[in-house]
Amino acid sequence: MRQHAQPIADSLVREVAKPAKQSLDEVVRSADLIDYTAEEGARALGAGELLTSDSFPGQTRNKLCLVSKVPLGVVLAIPPFNYPVNLAASKLAPALMAGNAVVLKPPSQGVVAGAHMMQCFAKAGLPKGLVNMGSEIGDYLTLHPLVSCISFTGGDTGIAIARRAGMVPLQMELGGKDVCIVCSDADLDLAAKSILKGGFSFSGQRCTAVKLVLVVKEVADALAAKVAAGVAKLTVGDPKDDVDITPVISDSSADFIEGLVEDARAKGAKFLTPYRREGNLIWPTLLDHVTPEMRIAWEEPFGPVVPIMRVDSVDQAVAHCNANNLALQGCVFTRDVNRAIAISDAMETGTVQINAAPARGPDHFPFQGFRDSGIGSQGIRNSLAMMVKIKSTVINLDKDSYARG
After folding, report:
1. What distances in angstroms separate CA 294 from CA 178, 212, 259, 298, 372, one per listed residue?
2. What sections of the sequence does the record tag as coiled-coil (predicted)?
3. Do the beta carbons of residue 153 and residue 105 sit within 8 Å?
4. Longest distance between any two alpha carbons in the chain, whole Å
5. What is the three-class DSSP state of 30?
6. Catalytic residue positions, numbered
7. Average pLDDT in the 198-203 region?
């Protein structure tokens, strides 16, 4: 993948309008992930366990249990359009290292990059048929009797898959409404910088994007001004030019984003930057004085729109966070580490970042969502553990022979 990084990155630019540098970074990061998975897998999967029966009350030492890890069979990997290479690699690498075969169902937009990656696996010498690329989804793949595990990243489709999957192990990350809580003692420059990066990187089309800023009123004006100044400097245009804001994935996605923006406008939100759209290119939009009555206070725009909601207290911010059915990640900005941990403990979400924007990596960290944001935990070690079954082989020694020693 490192040898063929540029053509894969070029495909990402053309297919999903990802800026050129971010596209190349995604491919290199994916190669790093595969390397790490191979090393971690050799350690984690190579360690067996030996149990003796006399460690349980009333038992003699004539039974030995060999505990081993065996492959599940066939893993169905379904990555999303926004990271069609990295999130495919995060599923493929653990599945293969655990001894499984894989069927990759790439996203419709991102399929060429996926095909390039499949060529890399072939060139690396993997046996024919071990990794396969499928074009169908629906019930055919997700309910196929040979599928032993489903690893899915995406949206509401994952909930439908989970309802039908039955006894098949599931690993699902289904999006989030990642809140950013800014306390009165926060470093506002750091918070503003993180909101810009977290909210507008890849035009906000990230499950870990900042999707709602909850700021206490005492510092709201100052924070809003700093973020607005940063938004004004963002560049907009063609992804080949490596600009900050590129077109969102489709016209229908742009229509959905615009619906959220117009709902907020009709209900009194203040626009700190003008809303502008040309086709599926949406200029970065910053909304202030967002209220709970607005859809954008709850729904995930998946675009370059960041809403700011002013709260009376941190408790109010945490309550809003916990009331949402989406609970992937969140972040907290405060100079008081004790306060930060207390807020994190109160937030019912999969990951909380302290003084930084939400982020998936590093890829060996656990990554999970609560409620409708997912099932299971990702991260290299967690994925390796999920891609195997535990098998016990019990050796029964003759009691009399064992007693005579």
Report:
1. 16, 12, 11, 8, 20
2. none
3. no
4. 88
5. helix
6. 173
7. 96
- Predicted confidence (pLDDT) at residue 139 exceeds the cutoff of 80: no
Residues 6+ apart with CB under 8 A from 395: 63, 64, 65, 66
84 phi/psi in degrees, rounded to 5: -70, -20
Alpha-carbon span 324 to 308, nearest angstrom: 16
Please give the Cα distance from 23 to 339 (Å, whole number). Answer: 37
Q: What average pLDDT score do residues 281-302 get?
A: 97
Which ranges constitute the DSSP H helices of 298-355?
A: 314-323, 337-346
The DSSP H or E segment spanning 162 is: helix 157-164
End-to-end Cα distance, the chain: 57
Contact 251, 282 (CB under 8 A): no
Can you spell out the DSSP letters for 356-391? Answer: S-----STTS-EE-EETTEESEESHHHHHHHTEEEE
Q: Which amino acid is at 88?
A: A
Residue bearing tokens 């890890």: 69
Distance CA 390, CA 72 (A): 10
Rg of the Cα trace of the chain?
Answer: 24
How far apart are the C-alpha atoms of 382 and 77, rounded to whole Å? 16
Q: Mean pLDDT across the chain, nearest whole number?
A: 93
Q: Across-strand partners of 354?
A: 332
**In the predicted structure, residue 405 carries a pLDDT above the cut 60:** no
DSSP conformation letters of 267-297: TT-EESS---EETTEE--EEEES--TTSGGG
Q: Note the pLDDT tens digit of each residue in 241-285.
A: 989 999 999 999 999 999 999 999 999 999 999 999 999 999 999
Mapping DSSP to helix (H, G, I), strand (E, B) and coil, where does residue 313 land?
A: coil
CB crowding 120-155: b at 16 or more within 10 Å, else e:
bbeeeeeeeeebebeeebeeebbeeeebbbbbbbbe
Q: Which domains does the chain have, with CATH numbers?
A: 5-174+373-392 (3.40.605.10), 179-354 (3.40.309.10)
Q: Residue holding tokens 């909304």? A: 287
Instruction: Give the separation between CA 219 and CA 32, rounded to whole angstroms.
Output: 40
Residue 218 vs residues 182, 255, 271, 317, 350: alpha-carbon distances, Å: 10, 35, 20, 14, 28
Contact 131, 101 (CB under 8 A): yes
| Cα separations in angstroms, 173 against 23, 176, 286, 374, 376 | 21, 9, 27, 4, 8
